[in-house]
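Dear support,

Our group has been running a series of protein-ligand predictions, and this particular one with guanosine-5'-monophosphate is the one our PI (initials K.S.) wants archived with full inputs and outputs. We had some confusion internally about which version of the output was final, so please treat the block below as the authoritative record. The input we submitted was:
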Amino acid sequence: MTQGKLFVISGPSGAGKGTICKRLLEEDNNIRFSVSMTTRAPREGEVDGKDYFFVDKEEFEALLGDNGLLEHNCYLDNYYGTPRRQIVAWLEEGRDVILEIDYHGAFQVRESYPECVLIFIMPPSIEELEERITGRGSETEETKQRRLREAMGEIAQADKYDYTVVNDNLDTAVARVSEIMESERNREE
Ligand code: ADP
Ligand code: 5GP
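Confirmed final output from the archive:
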């Protein structure tokens, strides 16, 4: 059976990665979303095992020590990482897998899976990014400012990605990512 393809989606907090991934999953039932593990506290409405596996530092470090993470990073004082086992199983089943992770993680994944496809989601402007983070209502003023400061360094990495998609109009951005995924799948066939 043909192996699935691995897609990595990154972009600054508030760019719309989660929103785009949700739409992609609704539209294509061969796609699987890798649920990351994090030590950050859940936001209102986030579900353990669906949005993230919410764990404490000890649990995170235990899995890391067992080589159970494909990649990991520390972002704004919390650990985030990609559990390895499920991804390997899905790829072997022929599923396409999306990882929604930051650039540190993306470049680690590219080391282990050089054939993976890296897609960067770019906000239309910093002003719009700030409005989206504010509109999401998930951050305090302080954590919002920290996320915005991180955003500049993240955007500077976009040229190392295979594709950059500007998320101005949501439908257009979803269609563009979908098109990229389709053409990358066909490339190997
Ligand atoms: P990320 O996962 O990159 O941190 P989210 O998907 O949580 O970002 O999106 C941040 C906020 O911006 C959410 O409130 C979402 O509804 C909104 N949003 C996402 N895409 C768009 C868009 N194209 N136009 C306007 N608002 C958007
Ligand atoms: P958030 O707290 O907004 O959910 O995520 C913060 C940042 O961590 C985002 O850039 C997000 O893409 C990234 N992230 C989420 N999961 C992972 C992961 O498993 N690994 C890495 N390296 N980054 C992640």
